[in-house]
Task: inverse folding
């Protein structure tokens, strides 16, 4: 049968004209009016556009709504009275909040803008379609969508509100999703969509997303409501859409990614080097059999000409659109600051300090960085910059880095001074960095509390091949240890009583010593540092061993240094300590920080977006913990871990830094050991004990990172347990959740492909497995990252405390007569020459300051209720408990820091341990646990 569109004549209240409409409730919000009662969105413009034009425009708009109704409606009677129509539909008001953002639609003045303004004027900026959760009971197919354009209702300072009305049939079912099409030529940032008028109350959809222009990509954006559904529980009307949306996010793995896309895919790290710029900057790809590594986000850039295994580097690395730092909340301070430090300040430091290798001549010079500062180059020196860029740079440095860049006015129009804020550590105690007890304390309460381990075997032995690296036995003998312990008990006793601890950078660094030593101005050793646990639960350093493998025709060189009461030996001890600190700094930055948090998390983010629908409760649980991580990692590839970047130029391993990170991933990284309790047990820092708090007994009772960390771990785990058990009431639901299974499989076999066959990956069969996996991921992105990141300026800002590099070998390693005499005459100069150069130190200090800064829009753990959590009373209550526990944790940490019995966290001049306190103010505070790795 042929179905004719049914037209219904309604008499208008305002004029004697009749308007025709479809019988289906498919009416554009304000079309049912005539020229004499203009809708508000057109009234403003009535003086601009004549009424005839409006009339013509309105007819065109009406044409859009000639849709053929389906059979069931076609068969109903033709003469329906107005009142019936009102009863069979419900009028819904829809308002859409669009943010005004820098560079977004509303700030642009381009030609397209003119067209876009007219589109706005005509009420055609965004086309919305409502989708029902239900299928049509008669046909078993998806119901037709209900469409309408929204039109501009008002514009405030930060957002624009668009509105429309929908007539929704009473039998339409629940609204399950909204399709959005952006008719502008520029992207728009959609904040929320609110549908008001339902009997159950309004529906709010939190979009917080960029909507591409339909001219860039014709695919409509879909936004599901805030309700969560496991795949098996998806309302039937949304099944197809749920799968389609995931398929769109995966892309087809081809072509170069464009900035407006939202495609999540994997690649190896083949863009660290820049061989097209110079062959010195060529780096082997990371990821694959030879150099195992986690995967990064695929950008699809073309291959470099000089090295086909590398990708071409271009400014601005692609990340999926919604992963970008939001310019939406103010301009994010910390990113802009990070960009300006890496891309403006560091290059200008190179201009002031022309001699890259120049050491500090006196400790006084280091101190003056905090009091006098460095003059930044005056503007006219930057020939290659346009004046405008210049003003911009000055402005950026002045506004973004008020902590570091002071403006001083002088006769010549004023210059800039880079003056560092004195870190809190040196404010409290100027000599903190010099003391052995502080060196030891920082292994449990400093910036890298993740390396200290219990010594369980004696004598110490290397696992490396003695044919290549020389004798495997350590030179640290029982006699040396007995001396260090003052003969109070034997070495066997000390090991049995768990009194001996070690920082062991021997086997990880030794294979790189020969290569690093061929680089100018760099040296390296393998190292072991031994500590004794005192009766007061503090650590005392007793021996450092430095090893150089056989090289340049010489045999292995190995030396043990101990604290001493003689000037020559104590200066050698201080220099040995500087080397160990540089090893610890490099390991901290490359492994504890970059690899174990930033780098391994990227595959979790990619897999979550590719395999878990936005509607999936586990997607909603993880989402806040992944905010901005892909963007910060892209920035690191651009300017921190790249060839010639800050890490390579200023850290001990130089251009081999990333290879060391890969070696650590290969040898040490296991997902199951990233859980804090498992990590502590593996390092011998705890044993399982069902009667102890957290089920663990710590080997060093006063271990601030572990003490506070375990409380935070438990709080996270309780929240995850409540959450998982609510959605997976039957254990079998986990095994039969195909999205979840695909997610976990992809993390293991694609994101961490080089470890896919390892036996230690947890299986995912029951809720308890899921709880363990999720708690680990959330701990890594929140607690672990905060502990190794936000103390960087406090502990590394005064670099003698943690030099990032040692540039000269030990004075007693095969010295020439002249070298030895110089050391004997002025040992302090030997230490200053060994430390980072002025350029290296100031570069690192500027970067650490920025990395330690909390941005004003930081989101701390337990602070913000996600919209979907508040939709469910059980989850809402669980989140409330989670927040309360975190607030109590703050008080507990304060109590611990005031407890004078806990000598690793309180004492004269000691910085309290606050890195795991959940909340913080903006700035460099040395506390605060953000949800995600966002700096």
Result:
């Amino acid at each position: 049968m042929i179905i004719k569109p049914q037209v219904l004549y309604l008499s208008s209240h305002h004029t004697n004209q009749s308007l025709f409409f479809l019988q289906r409730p498919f009416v554009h919000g304000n079309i049912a009016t005539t020229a004499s009662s203009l809708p508000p969105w057109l009234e403003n413009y009535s003086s601009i556009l004549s009424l005839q034009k409006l009339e013509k425009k309105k007819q065109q708009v009406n044409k859009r709504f000639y849709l053929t109704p389906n059979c069931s409606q076609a068969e109903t009677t033709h003469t329906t009275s107005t009142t019936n129509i009102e009863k069979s539909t419900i009028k819904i008001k829809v308002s859409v909040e669009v943010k005004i953002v820098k560079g977004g639609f509303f700030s642009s003045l381009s030609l397209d803008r003119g067209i876009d303004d007219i589109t706005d004027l005509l009420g055609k900026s965004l086309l919305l379609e409502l989708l029902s959760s239900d299928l049509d009971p008669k046909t078993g197919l998806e119901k037709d969508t209900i469409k309408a354009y929204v039109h501009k209702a008002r514009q405030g300072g930060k957002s624009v509100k668009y509105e429309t009305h929908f007539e929704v049939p009473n039998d339409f079912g629940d609204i399950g999703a909204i399709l959005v099409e952006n008719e502008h030529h520029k992207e728009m940032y959609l904040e929320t969509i609110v549908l008001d008028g339902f009997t159950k109350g309004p529906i709010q959809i939190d979009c917080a997303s960029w909507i591409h222009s339909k001219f860039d990509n014709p695919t409509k954006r879909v936004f599901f409501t805030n309700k969560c559904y496991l795949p098996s529980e998806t309302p039937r009307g949304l099944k197809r859409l749920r799968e389609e949306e995931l398929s769109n996010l995966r892309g087809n793995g081809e072509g170069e990614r464009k900035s407006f896309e939202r495609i999540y895919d994997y690649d190896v790290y083949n863009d660290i080097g820049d061989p097209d710029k110079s062959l010195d900057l060529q780096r082997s790809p990371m990821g694959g059999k030879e150099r195992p590594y986690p995967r990064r986000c695929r950008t699809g850039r073309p291959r470099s000409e000089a090295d086909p295994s590398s990708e071409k580097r271009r400014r601005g690395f692609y990340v999926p659109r919604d992963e970008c730092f939001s310019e939406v909340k103010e301009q994010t301070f910390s990113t802009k600051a990070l960009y300006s430090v890496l891309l403006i300040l560091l290059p200008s430091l190179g201009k002031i300090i022309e001699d890259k290798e120049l050491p500090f001549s006196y400790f006084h010079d280091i101190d003056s960085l905090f009091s006098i500062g460095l003059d930044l180059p005056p503007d006219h020196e930057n020939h290659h910059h346009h004046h405008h860029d210049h003003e911009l740079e000055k402005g950026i440095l002045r506004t973004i880095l008020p902590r570091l860049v002071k403006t001083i006015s002088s006769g010549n129009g004023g210059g800039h001074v880079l003056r560092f804020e004195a870190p809190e550590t040196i404010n409290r105690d100027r000599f903190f960095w010099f003391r052995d007890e502080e060196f030891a304390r920082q292994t449990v309460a400093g910036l890298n509390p993740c390396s200290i381990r219990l010594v369980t075997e004696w004598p110490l032995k290397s696992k490396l091949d003695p044919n290549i690296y020389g004798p495997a036995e350590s030179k640290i003998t029982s006699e040396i240890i007995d001396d260090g312990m003052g003969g109070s008990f034997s070495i066997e006793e000390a090991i049995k009583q768990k009194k001996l601890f070690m920082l062991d950078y021997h086997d990880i660094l030794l294979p790189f010593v020969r290569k690093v030593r061929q680089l100018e101005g760099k040296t390296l050793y393998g190292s072991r540092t031994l500590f004794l646990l005192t009766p007061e639960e503090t650590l005392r350093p007793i021996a450092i061993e430095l090893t150089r493998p056989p090289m340049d025709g010489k045999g292995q060189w190995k030396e043990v240094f101990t604290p001493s009461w003689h000037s020559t030996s104590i200066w050698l001890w201080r220099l040995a300590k500087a080397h160990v600190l540089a090893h610890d700094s490099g390991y901290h930055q490359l492994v504890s920080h970059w690899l174990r948090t930033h780098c391994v998390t990227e595959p979790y983010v990619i897999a979550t977006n590719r395999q878990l629908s936005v509607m999936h409760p586990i997607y909603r649980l993880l989402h806040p913990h992944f905010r901005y991580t892909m963007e910060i990692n892209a920035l690191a590839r651009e300017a921190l871990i790249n060839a010639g970047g800050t890490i390579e130029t200023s850290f001990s391993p130089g251009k081999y830094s990333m290879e060391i990170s890969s070696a650590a991933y290969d040898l040490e990284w296991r997902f199951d050991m990233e859980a804090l309790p498992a990590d502590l047990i593996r390092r011998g820092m705890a044993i399982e004990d069902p009667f102890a708090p957290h089920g663990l007994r710590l080997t060093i009772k006063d271990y601030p990172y572990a003490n506070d960390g375990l409380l935070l771990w438990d709080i996270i785990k309780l929240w995850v347990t409540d959450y998982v058990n609510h959605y997976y009431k039957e254990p079998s639901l986990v095994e039969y959740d195909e999205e979840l299974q695909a997610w976990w499989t992809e993390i293991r076999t694609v994101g961490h492909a080089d470890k896919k066959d390892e036996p230690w990956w947890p299986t995912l069969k029951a809720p308890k497995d899921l709880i363990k996996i999720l708690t680990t991921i959330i701990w890594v992105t929140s607690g672990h990252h905060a502990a190794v990141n936000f103390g960087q300026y406090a502990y590394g800002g005064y670099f003698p405390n943690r030099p990032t590099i040692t540039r000269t070998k030990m004075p007693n390693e095969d010295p020439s007569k002249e070298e030895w005499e110089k050391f004997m005459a002025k040992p302090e100069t030997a230490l200053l020459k060994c430390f980072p150069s002025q350029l290296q130190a100031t570069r690192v200090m500027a970067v650490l300051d920025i990395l330690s800064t909390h941005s004003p829009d930081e989101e701390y753990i337990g602070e913000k209720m996600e919209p979907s959590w508040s939709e469910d009373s059980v989850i809402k209550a669980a989140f409330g408990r989670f927040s309360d526990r975190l607030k109590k944790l703050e008080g507990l940490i304060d109590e611990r820091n005031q407890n004078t019995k806990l000598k690793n966290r309180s004492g004269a001049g000691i910085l309290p341990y606050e890195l795991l306190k959940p909340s913080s103010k903006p700035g460099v505070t040395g506390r605060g646990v953000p949800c995600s790795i966002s700096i």
About this structure: Confidence is low (pLDDT under 50) at residues 1-52, 54-86, 104-113, 380-391. The CA atoms of residues 8 and 80 lie 8 Å apart.
